[in-house]
Amino acid sequence: MKEKSKKACNMKIAFIKILFWTFSMLLLSDKSQTSKTEVQCNFTEKNYSLIPADVNKNVTILDLSYNQITLNATDTRVLQTFFLLTELYLIENNVTVLHNNSFGNLSNLGILNICRNSIYIIELGAFVGLSKLKQLHLCQNQILQLNTDTFMPLRNLKLLNLQGNLISYFEVPQLFHLELIILYANPWNCSCSLFNLQNWLNTSNVTLENENITTCRYPDILKSYNIKTVPHKAECISKFPSPTTEDLYIHFQSISNSTFNSSLNNLTKNSEHEPLGKSWAFLVGVVVTVLMTSLLIFIAIKCPIWYNFLLSYNHHRLEEHEVETYEDSFPGNPSSLSQMPATNSEDTVIFEQLHSFVVDDDGFIEDKYIDTHELCEN
């Protein structure tokens, strides 16, 4: 009986310990939950021009809406001290530029709302460090264009709000897996430049909020068409490469030169029977054009020299013994010429042609191809 009573007593003690441990855990969880709600800070409509530096460093939800904050370098330094921040609201302030690393140390931030400011520039590294961000609200600003690489650090982004800006087209970045996107009240240009966005909206799992009022502004013929269903011409489809081609291009850009060369060799082996691209034909055409032009220039320069050489190659000065022989054959006495018997007309012509080459005083035959200036110098 004593052993049974001891066992029962031990079981009661163990049960009481379990209950006490469970109760203490609940108290701790309640305290942690209470501590989380205690670090919510609301500084709305305080007319602040700078983020106050005396905010609790353990703040998790910070609301600075309806102030005059510009998010300058001083504000950025203060923000980077709030390591535990999960929600940040800067609605209706004076922010115009989102600089690089504006939220660099806010690695726990899940919601960022900067609507109703005057943002017109978002630098490439503005969202670096926000790997846990799930909601980004940039509505009612003055954004004209967004670089697709700006959103690359946002690997867990689920909601993007771009409503009420000046965006006319939007290139969807690679690996951009949203669940909800808000694009209405923008002047969308529904020409071929919008084809990629439309294709992404129709093929991905993203939901376009207020789809019926997200319409085209340009061109006039497509005005009021829904950007998700606006018809595109066949030339737009052929103009833009397929997603597979884009992925391959990005892959080749990211790898090193050696890896690229080996991949290119493998690709060439697999496509030996495919025709060469237009770039090769263009290169061959340029080379042929350069060679032909060089050949024509060479011929144009050399032809006059060859022509003059062929015309005057057999003209040379007479040697001294040739002059004496010529004088013996044709004496300078004109009376001797008159004593010669009459001949026919052909002999006369030959004689006149021979007589025209009368020996000059200097002993040379006059030749029009000999430069007289050169003779004078000699």
Bin the strand percentage. 5-15%
Describe the main β-sheet briefly. Answer: 8 strands, parallel
Helix fraction? 40-55%
The rough form would be described as elongated
How are helices and strands ordered from N to C?
HEEHEEEEEEEEHEEHHHHHHHH
Strand order of the largest sheet: 1-2-3-5-7-8-9-11
Strand segment tally: 12
In the predicted model, the low-confidence regions spanning at least 5 consecutive residues are 30-36, 241-277, 334-361
Mean pLDDT: 75
List keywords for this structure.
378 residues; 9% strand; eight-stranded parallel beta sheet; two-stranded parallel ribbon; alpha/beta
Provide an overview of this structure.
- The chain is an alpha/beta fold and 378 residues long.
- It is 40% helix and 9% strand.
- The chain contains eleven helices and twelve strands.
- It has helices spanning 2-38, 73-79, 195-203, 234-239, 243-254, 257-270, 278-312, 320-329, 334-338, 345-355, 372-377; strands spanning 40-42, 61-63, 87-89, 97-98, 111-113, 121-122, 135-137, 159-161, 180-182, 188-189, 207-209, 216-218.
- An eight-stranded parallel sheet has the order 1-2-3-5-7-8-9-11. The chain has a two-stranded parallel ribbon with strand order 4-6.
- Helix 2 links the parallel strand 2 and strand 3.
- It is elongated and about 135 Å long.
Question: What is this structure's SSE topology?
Answer:
Blueprint: H1 2-38, E1 40-42, E2 61-63, H2 73-79, E3 87-89, E4 97-98, E5 111-113, E6 121-122, E7 135-137, E8 159-161, E9 180-182, E10 188-189, H3 195-203, E11 207-209, E12 216-218, H4 234-239, H5 243-254, H6 257-270, H7 278-312, H8 320-329, H9 334-338, H10 345-355, H11 372-377
Parallel strand pairs: 1-2, 2-3, 3-5, 4-6, 5-7, 7-8, 8-9, 9-11, 10-12
